[in-house]
Every structure is written in C-alpha cells, then in structure tokens.
C-alpha cells in the first residue's frame, strides 16, 4: 500500500516547531574555500563517507520525505516518468543514493529540526560535497542556505551563503504568499531548465533567497516578484528550484514544462535538442483560472460533482435529487487537460463529520493526483473532532491526511469563522485554532480560508457595527449601502461578523489565501460581486480568489480589471460546458491580462 511507503522514520513528525539554535550541519563540517563554477569544491571534515550505491538500476530515484506536506504529487510525477522510488530510511540511504530528490514542504524550522534529530542534515551535506546528483524543491532549496528568518532566525544546512527572508509586501504592492504561475529569467547554464522556455512555472511560498555576490556562482535562474529572488541554483550535479516542477504541468505542454525539469535531472541523456514550443511569452505573475468541484454523495450513495443555486444543490423537480454533473476524478483530469491553473475540491458530503474516515474523498484526491500535475486544494471537515468511538483527532492530523493524499492546500470554512470571532473578541491569538496550527507547521501558503457571505442592505453606514460600502446596484428598496454577513454550515447560519472583519482577522491568524464566495451570486451567471471582491482584495495583503457568479469570459476580465483579485474560480459554466477554460484564457489574453497558456 502507498501509505506504508511514506517516510516511515518520520511519520510521527507533524507538529514540531522547535527552532534549532545549534550550528548548522554543514557549518560544522564545512570550511568554505574558493569554489569552481563547474563543480562543487566544498571542503568537509565529515565522519560520514559516501559508498558506491549497490543499486545498478537507472530507473530508481531516492526520495527524502521528512513527513510533512504533500509529496504524493512528486511520487506520482516520478512514476509517470517511469521511475521507481526508494524512500530514505536512514542517513546511509542518502549517502548511497544514485540520485536524490528532496521535496521540502512546510515551514523551515520544523524541517531543520527533523534533519538535525535524525542525522539526515549531515548526510545531506556530505552527499552534496561529493557532487552527487541532487534536486531540492521549494523548501528543499531554502534549507541549503545559511539561515532563515521564518519563525527565527533558524540555522539552515549552510551549503549556500545567504539568509532566506520574507517577501517585502511593500515592494511594488505585492501579495504574500507568492502563489501562482510566474516567469523565470534563466542565467547560468542549467540543463534541467532548457525546456521551460517562455512558459510559466508554479510557485507557492512566503520566503525567498536573494542573489548576492557571495552566492552568485550558484544562481541559475531568478524570478521577479516585487524584487528579484533566486528561483533555481545549480553547481555541478547539485540542483534546486524554488518552484514546483511536479505542479508546473499545463495542457499539452506539460511534458515540456514541469515534468521535463524532473526528466532532465533524472536522465540527462534523454534531453532533447529540440527548442521549446513557442507561445505567449511569460513575463510576470499570471492571473489564475481555477476550476471548482463541489463533491458530495447523492441519494444513491455515489460520489458526484454537483453545483448549487445559491447553495441549493438539489434539482427543482418532483424527485428533488442531488444535481449530478459528473464524476470528480474524470472532471478534474479533463479540466487539467483544458488548462485549469488549479483544481479545487469542496467536500460537502456527510463524511465531513468524520474526516479521517472519509475514504471516498481521500480516494478522489489520490486518483486525481496520479495524472493531474497542477495544484489541488481540498476543503470540508478540516477541524478538531472526536469520532464515534471517543477518539480525538486534531486539525493537524486531519490536514495531514489530506496532504498525504494529494492536496497541496487545504481550505477552512466554518472553523475559521469561529476562530476569527474569538480573536476579535479577545484580541489575542490562542495558537490552538485549526488555522493557526496548520499554518504554523505547514506554512500559511498551504492554508486557504473560504468565506461565504451574504449581502445585507442598509440605509445608512452607521446602522450596523460592520464595514459598510456603497454598492453599485441599489437594494430592493433603493438602499445604497450594504455589508456582507458571513455564514457557516454551508450558508445556513448567519454569524455576527462581516466579510471585511473576517478577512482581516484570518490574515492575522495565518491564512495565506482567501477564497471569496458570495451566496447572492452563486449559480446566477451574472458575474462576480465586484463590490465585495474589491472590498476584500483592497483590504488584505494575501491573495484573494474571486468566486460565485461567473457566466461568461467577460466576467473574468471584469473582475481582474476592476479589483485586485489574484485568481477567479468557476464551477457550473465549466461542468455544463457552457464556457471552455481555454475560451476564458484566450479572452483574457485579448484583454492584455497575463495568463498561463
């Protein structure tokens, strides 16, 4: 079984956040000398030695999975490329690897804590010193640097000079985390990037390393997001990328973009001399088009994709059955082929009362991630709970199960509303909410908060103690103002908190992104509530996804042109094949809006 292969030595690691105050593994071993450009010329005083691998198979890759976040996607990508996987069980497995991939996921401090406690850190340093084939991904790049400011300072492996710092949100008005598809500026020769060409690749991170005189010989590409940061390094056989190649697939070009980076690293001889296919040149962070699938069981017990009309998912017929728009795995695969930048699953089944027993939804994620190489988000039932036997599960355990099953981000709804209400009331963070716990361990870039507000018209801004705005379209009695009341339980219960207040609070509590729905617009096909989207996207410094109401390609350009939304999500128009994803993107290109093609 797949679960049995997931990093056995580290499987108990979930919540550790202890900062390492000791010297980094490589700084204990490493005396930096003048380094040659073409090879790793590091001097270690290591008690570890690299033995020739006993494996003679060219199709085996060693994977260092330290037990946090979604590494199922990299596993699936490697298998898709025809490679088998050997999991690291001991430091010796690192030293004996023919080729090693370190897909770091989560926060810097917990990762270093695991590497230090298990002896993996020292083994990594020795492996890299010997110029063995290595590929770090995302956090797997950041950990190579001297230190990080994330929950720190925290010492890193000390291989590359420099400190990993947080993006400066004041630089060019950027939103942090950096989430989405951005362009690379390739510098020094790095064969594994040759197929990327003019295409976008997928980033999701809040911290970055900056090029400097001390580390310039390592830098193989940079990316611009408010400032220029290191998007990849290369020296000899040692590579690392800040973006996610396993998530940088795209339509017919996926083999030329994301997976090609992995293929070129694993099998340099397979590198094609063919130039990457030309297309619209990627120049900056693209606006994202996201396909959403509301998943629940119908009355027959089958798991189906449905779509609500102002959150009502039942047909208006005598049978009053759950609206069935297709099978979730099949639809997700189709949307990936059609060019969706992300796939979002919302689990609205009765299983959400028992998340870890929600086998159908877990299976949906597992099967989808086998062939869908763009980011997957899942929401529904992610909270602390006690099952029918009296066993308690923390929200971290629930989130971990979703991550292990293929989710890249998790979406929290009602539980985030309750946490925000408590935070506003007390003025203090408890650190105990699901939002705070998950973002602390996995990083805020892995946590989306879904807001489900309903428009409430008022005659005067002083009528309520919530943020009130002047609306574009007056209310039924000519009201010129409205506030947006947040709801829980699928829109069935209104709460004493507005969308503005909730958004500000969850940003403080650790949310990395906001999925902004609107009950009034849901299923109407008349466009997004741009008044609401503008209010929230102007008020927070994290990305905002506009949702609810899309009916035409013009609705997407409208929300991008009139608000600061980073992405727009739709469901029904894609499910019913009324508007193809490709048509939306072509329209956005015509409007000079950057999109991934």
Automatic annotation (TrEMBL):
IGPS catalyzes the conversion of PRFAR and glutamine to IGP, AICAR and glutamate. The glutaminase domain produces the ammonia necessary for the cyclase domain to produce IGP and AICAR from PRFAR. The ammonia is channeled to the active site of the cyclase domain. Pathway: Amino-acid biosynthesis; L-histidine biosynthesis; L-histidine from 5-phospho-alpha-D-ribose 1-diphosphate: step 5/9. This is Imidazole glycerol phosphate synthase hisHF. L-glutamine binds at residue 138. It catalyses: 5-[(5-phospho-1-deoxy-D-ribulos-1-ylimino)methylamino]-1-(5-phospho-beta-D-ribosyl)imidazole-4-carboxamide + L-glutamine = D-erythro-1-(imidazol-4-yl)glycerol 3-phosphate + 5-amino-1-(5-phospho-beta-D-ribosyl)imidazole-4-carboxamide + L-glutamate + H(+); L-glutamine + H2O = L-glutamate + NH4(+). Keywords: Amino-acid biosynthesis, Chloroplast, Glutamine amidotransferase, Histidine biosynthesis, Hydrolase, Lyase, Multifunctional enzyme, Plastid. The keyword Chloroplast applies. The lineage of its organism: Eukaryota, Viridiplantae, Streptophyta, Embryophyta, Tracheophyta. GO terms for molecular function: glutaminase activity; imidazoleglycerol-phosphate synthase activity; lyase activity. The active site is at residues 138, 244, 246, 294, 452. In the C-terminal section; belongs to the HisA/HisF family.
